[in-house]
Specification:
CAT_C, 69% helix, transport, mainly alpha, globular, two-stranded antiparallel ribbon, membrane, Amino acid/polyamine transporter I, 569 residues, AA/rel_permease1
């Protein structure tokens, strides 16, 4: 096996040629407004309508600062994505960008990680949609059997807790789960429990994405208008119920409580890169993609911070650990009509997020298939609908089946690990583009600030601040040795990476903003739990097995007799 073949890079010219060969088959119908709409649809989804409650419960009102910090972190990554999107306007997103920068093996790893970002995050969105949908039906007096509305693990956990502490000590959500366990039909004594609405909405959205990008665009634009309307209504309507005393204490659980919400908060922002997967359906991708990424990120950051402050001002943070926080706060203050409106419109709003992620995943698989790394069937374009038909159907199955049976919180953290990894590779890719002279091909470039001295000075200042004010690097929490060791090793990797980047910035005059993007994403990665990292590593090992079993042997680039001009000697 040739090492050079594993790390062969595709030139930008070759990627553009491959995408245009015979016509990509995709319809170019999206303008900048449509792209911004798709970005908002992806970002303002399950994060703001569901996971924001848990994040606020853990971090208190200070979670608004975490939203601000994560948005700040995403800006550096978004700028890097924007430069790549203007230089390589094809549908592969970070997968294609890694192919240009780091070679085929890294491209495959990123493509495999993106399955976690898109397919797995869509499972979260589908489960969240189900919760709001069931709540909406109950508001109209329609009761769905509890065993048809949740993952079996919720019901089993509630049953086991009831046996330990008694039914009187169960919370409201746990009592519903216990009801599901007790009323579920049984086969061989095993209760049959699954989340039917999550499966059904995934099937519907998959059908919508299958029949065409125009139909998806119309549906997305409509749902985004509804979504923004209800969020503005919550913000401006909720202001009248804000009690400033609810903002005190601002960070009741300290920085630890705030940072515990990193995964949930970051999950709320991951959708901005989904815009890049529609490059081959954009009218003017090199101009419009960068604009759309920045616009939608700024808009959504403002909305998130405002709505977090309103929620934590209306009710005490300790009451926000609920499935539908936006509807709950209005019920809490006695404004039931508004709670009902929020529930109905939330169903529409979350559907739009589901649609965009379901739109993105097939297009990445299509691009990987076009390169020979996946079965060629994934590149099939429907002759009538002009969509990657086979890849869309497979995405629907990959999302729908787990959404029927798994808990939402399992997926949130797991999604974030894969996303951080992809973001770091994209920021690093911009540094490669600058060094290799490829940035000249981009119509949009990350603003250049010479990091020659700044990165190194920042490294020593950071070490001093940690030494002076920071907590000890090695600390065990409740005897959790495994978690502590993993966390400390990740912190070490963070500082080691910063040190290496300091040296390389001095030698090669690296652009400061992509370096900041790498460091912020790497730091946020270190705050995720050990179990998520273990599962992510297992996922990558499975991906490598698939690559060496199929992708390496069928790669069009590696089987080409012509040497790639961008390949490093």
């Amino acid at each position: 096996m040739s090492k050079n073949k594993l790390f062969r890079k595709k030139s930008i010219d070759q990627i553009l040629l491959d995408s245009q060969k015979g016509g990509s088959g995709l319809a170019r119908v999206l303008g900048v407004r449509d792209l911004v709409s798709l970005g908002i649809a992806a970002i303002v989804g399950a994060g703001i309508f569901s996971t924001i409650g848990l994040a606020s419960y853990n971090g208190g009102p200070a979670i608004s600062l975490l939203f601000l910090f994560v948005a700040f972190a995403c800006v550096f990554t978004a700028l890097s994505y924007a430069q790549f999107a203007s230089a390589v306007p094809v549908s592969g997103s970070a997968y294609t960008y890694a192919y240009v920068s780091f070679g085929e093996l890294f491209a495959w790893i990123i493509g495999w990680a993106l399955v976690l970002e898109y397919a797995v995050s869509n499972m979260v969105v589908a489960i969240s949609w189900s919760q709001y949908f069931v709540s909406m039906l109950e508001g109209f007096g329609l009761i769905v059997p509890k065993w048809l509305t949740m993952a079996p693990a919720y019901a089993l956990d509630a049953y086991e807790k009831m046996q330990l502490v008694g039914i009187d000590n169960l919370e409201g959500i746990e009592r519903v789960a216990l009801q599901a366990y007790e009323t579920a039909p049984r086969i061989g004594g095993i209760p049959i429990i699954f989340d039917l609405p999550a499966g059904l909405i995934t099937a519907f959205v998959t059908w919508l994405v299958y029949i065409g990008i125009k139909e998806s665009r119309r549906a997305s634009n409509f749902m985004v208008m509804v979504k923004i309307g209800v969020i503005l209504a919550v913000i401006f309507g909720g202001i009248f119920f804000v009690k400033p005393e609810n903002w005190s204490p601002f960070a009741p659980n300290g920085m630890e409580g705030v940072l515990s919400g990193v995964a949930a908060v970051f999950f709320a922002f991951i959708g901005f890169d989904s815009i890049s997967t529609t490059a081959e359906e954009s009218k003017n991708p090199q101009r419009d993609l960068p604009r759309a990424m920045i616009y939608c990120l700024l808009i959504c950051a403002v909305l998130y911070v405002c709505i977090t402050l309103v929620l934590t001002g209306m009710v005490n943070y300790s009451a926000l650990n609920v499935k539908d926080p936006l509807a709950y706060v209005f019920s809490y203050v006695g404004f039931d009509h508004m709670a009902g409106i929020v529930s109905v419109t939330s169903v529409i709003a979350i559907t739009s997020a589901l649609l965009v992620f379901q739109l993105a995943q097939p297009r990445i698989w299509m691009t990987m298939s076009r390169d020979g790394l996946l079965w060629k069937k994934f590149a099939t374009i429907h002759p009538k609908y002009k969509t990657p038909s086979f890849a869309t159907i497979v995405t629907g199955l990959v999302v729908a089946v787990p959404a029927l049976f798994f808990k939402m919180d399992f997926f949130v953290d797991l999604t974030s690990v894969g996303t951080f990894f992809a973001f770091i590779m994209v920021c690093g890719g911009v540094l490669y583009m600058d060094h290799a002279g490829l940035s000249s091909k981009a119509k949009f470039r990350v603003p250049y600030i010479n990091g020659k001295y700044i990165v190194g000075i920042g490294f020593f200042v950071g070490l001093f601040l940690v030494y002076k004010y920071g907590a000890p690097l090695v600390a065990l929490s409740n005897g959790e040795v495994g978690n502590a060791l993993l966390h400390n090793s990740l912190i070490f990797i963070f500082w080691a990476t910063w040190f290496v980047l300091s040296i390389m910035s001095f030698r090669f005059n690296f652009s400061l903003l992509p370096v900041i993007g790498i460091l912020i994403n790497l730091y946020l990665m270190s705050e995720l739990g050990a179990s998520n990292w273990i599962i992510f590593v297992i996922w990558l090992l499975i991906g490598l097995a698939v690559y060496f079993a199929y992708g390496y042997r069928h790669s069009k680039l590696n089987n080409s007799p012509i040497e790639d001009p961008t390949e490093a000697p």
